[in-house]
Amino acid sequence: MRDTRGLISKVDLPLLIGILTLMFLGILTVYSVAYNPEHPSLFDTSQKYGKQILWIGVSLFLGFLILLIEADVYRKFAEYIYIVTLLLLVIVLFMPPVHGAKAWLGIGGLGIQPAEFAKISTALMLAKWVDETNIKLQNTRTISETLGIILLPCILVALQPDAGTLLVFTSFFFVLYREGISFDPIVLSLLRYFPRLKFKTTWLGTHFVPFFFFLLILAFLSLFLSSSTFYPFGISLSGPLFLIVIITLVAFIFLAFILFFGYPRNKSKNLIVLVSSYVFSLFLVSSITFIFNNLAAPHQKSRIELVLGLKEDPNGADYNRNRAMAAVGSGKFLGKGFRKASVSSMRTNHVPESETDFIFCPFAEEWGFLGNLFLISLYLFILFRIFSIAERQRSVFFRVYAYCVGMVLFYHFAINIGMNIGFAPVIGIPLPFMSYGGSSMMAFTIMVFVLLKLDSQRRDVLR
Amino acid sequence: MNLDNRKYLLYALVIGTGFFYLLRLFYMQVVDDSWTRRATEIAEKRREIIPPRGVLVDRKNRKIVINKISYNLMVVEERIKHLDTSSFAKLIGWDVKKVKARFKEIIKNEGVYKNPSTGKTQSNYRKDRPYPFVKDLTLEEVTRIASRLTDFPGFYEEPTGTRFYPYPNGANILGYMNEVGRKEIEADAFYRPGMNIGRSGLERSYESILRGKKGVRYIVTSATNNEIEPYADKKFDTVATPSPKIKLGIDIKLQQYGEELMKNKKGCIVAIEPKTGEILTMVSAPCYDPNLLAGRKNIRKNYPGLITDENLPLFARPLQAEYPPGSIFKLLQALICLQEKEITPNTGFPCNKSVVGCHDHPSPSSVAKAVQYSCNPYFYAAVRRVIQPNKKKNVFEDAEIGLNNWHKYMMAFGLGTKLGVDIDTLAQRKGLIPNSSYYDKYLGHHQWAFSTIRSISIGQGEIKLTPIQMANIAVIMANRGWYYTPHFVKSIGKKGKLKTYRTKHITPINRKHFDAVVEGMRRVVYEAGGTGKEAKIENFVVCGKTGTVQNGKNKKNHSVFIAFAPMDNPKIALAVFVENAGAGGAWAAPIAGLILDKYLNKKVTNKEKEQTIKNANLMSSY
Description:
The structure holds two protein chains of two kinds. By secondary structure, chain A is mainly alpha-helical. Chain A contains 18 helices and four strands. In chain A, strand 3 and strand 4 form a beta hairpin. In chain B, helix 3 (85-92) crosses helix 4 (96-109), helix 10 runs antiparallel to helix 21 and helix 13 (330-339) runs antiparallel to helix 20. Chains A and B meet through helix 8, helix 15, helix 16 and helix 17 of A and helix 1 and helix 2 of B.
């Protein structure tokens, strides 16, 4: 066992400081939101802020323990950790539901959410799998086995049900894409039904993950904008038309890149991809808009509208989103100041869950755009730090795990803040290191400290 | 394949998201104001503070109109969440059964009304409306309950102020209040739905003072609409200013006594302090307990009965009823004749019953004796000289000049015009003093002379006065020629009375002419053959004049008496009018005597007379 000082010196300090800063901002915001004048002490564990400090203390202690464990242990025991987590996810389904979801494991007030830890174990399992199979993720069998690793916890989480965590699991696809997963074999096997078409590889199969997500986002956007109107340069444009204009502009930019900067060798291939993507995008946007406006039954339509926040129903189903956006918007440039949040404070309780899933809300209200600029920059800094850590690993296991951590954090960041500003539907997932709650705090801390440990030992590992 | 390039896709995703989020946040927080407005709408509330309504005291600082503040525990069904019935019942000190029953009762009874078009009873109960769950809680009760109401969303306390009248008297003076209408809310920013406004009497005429000045508080409210804290450290708040105390000239004890005397009779008593014009008492009989119309519940219960009562208790007779004055009018006639030099104090006329009817008495040899005997032929002869001054040869043209001259005098006595009492002017009547155009309209131009209109000389015929005008005549007699407009409000806070009531009205009658007429009034009470002996009291010299007002065929005469006392330096002037009671001396004079005794001697010596009057029931004669 190494001495502690050497241990700390090898830890990536910028990432650690970034995380600690987030934790500090989290305590500050929880203190502001949940402030109880009868218990003004920050360390009063009967209050949420005291508890949050307790959680952070426990989490950092766990993190310290993790630093003491040999990095190799995680690789060795990855599948056991994965299986134990799966078992926990099964057991949790037999627990009494809390707020309609069977997500909690524990007795009385103390409990953990196995789903939070499933992200870590799945990441470890995935990393080990990709590392050890040592094969390219480019044949049908390995692809299905890899997908199985992700899908198994996904199904169990969906049974709880926990849509947020389910969504977060899809972040692993981006990691697999980075690691070279190709859906080409599947696409090619489908193409066999068209005898005239003969390809060795397809662009669609190779880049299926980003392409699929691009389509999803495009579909989401065309629904999201279907009933709004934009006024660029004084011209009135309906939402879908505006989207088409944007797509066309982007297509022209890509066209210019291909013609002037691209390799001449790839020119014709790139042009085919661009044109077909463009045509397909237009088709997608217009067909979704048409289906939504003309074919969807009214109740389906209004449900979709509410989920997307298109319909104004400030006191009904759209309650949280409306209150949260009012709180964020009213923060203005400099914010209302510490403990001055009038909409999102727990005392007024206009924004439910403002100490947990909606913690961005009071932060934005109290610190304004300036605070948000700092917070978002801090998250981007942390994410990029993790990416750069990932890229400097010699071990595939380490790199895959690092990217998994980065993408999980990114998903949480993007969805959580997105729902506060009307960019994402209201899905209950915590803001990493800031939201009040023991399970998520411990899970994120463990996740990052495992990464820090792996990173600190990167030189010891030979590929 | 170069997989390394794929990392740039992830970088672009992260950078792009961060960039678009910041752009969006910049738009929401810096560019667009609508979210800030929405936040204000959600969490910051403007609360108006309505000060307690002004209190009225009588001339001896006895509180006669106060506010009874009570609290209602209100419930909005829609806002109730997981009500723990047993602990709620414990909080309000009921048992669970009663709480459940009350919910059913509210749904069944509150908001129930009779639909005027269909005649069916309907309920407009709504889940989003507040209804009182527990009514009339005291301050102690509500402080205990309110602190724990946060556990029971849907319930909140609300103060309700209703007027309370410690003395059940003077209803027609004080007036009543009722909920504001839609038009009033639109016309005046002070009012909000559910507030009350003065509907009659002083409540109406002094509404703008009594309501006070509203204050405003800006507060931060919670999702359950509870107040959390003041907004912006009370920077924008303003304080509510309650109405100053309003002191009335009324002597509530005298008012009470007057109402007791007038029980089971129709008519009025109006007493005024001559030196100030302050109304001491204004009894309108029959009357009602003002508490019957205090608060909406009471109004709903009692108003229909009062408004349909054939004896018109809501009708403020002293201001709104017009009666012929009868013989009390002779006092003014005597003064005008003296001023016009048509007679002297020692002019005598024979009591010639062939011209106009009279009772048996010696022919008066002076003005004083004419007043004493209330001699009809005397005043017929004297007033004839005023109406027919022989200025024109044509008798009709002459009467026109004479009548208009006479009319001018009468106007100066405050007759034929609204006196301007400080109860809203709509509730006051002018009375009627005819002039030439009046008769021209009915009889034709130059179609009339004194002989046509002679009954005005004895206060009959077309002449009509309100009882307050009659009392004002007594004031003019007491003051020997001047009066202040009669009024109720003595002072508003530290300020005195309104300027209108500090302006002396001086009649065009010379001071010296009063002596003879006032001597006549003394004789009415004290000399043999006087008609008002029943008004006599101990210690003070009373001057009075009776009137017996003919009132059409088959109806008993109205009984009138006006008086002031003492003769020198008078303290009180009054008019008593009893409908269909008979001779002035028989009913009005003894009532006046009792009032004078009560006011000047502070106690009534003639208990027998008092009992007779109190017990007398004239209601069968109406």
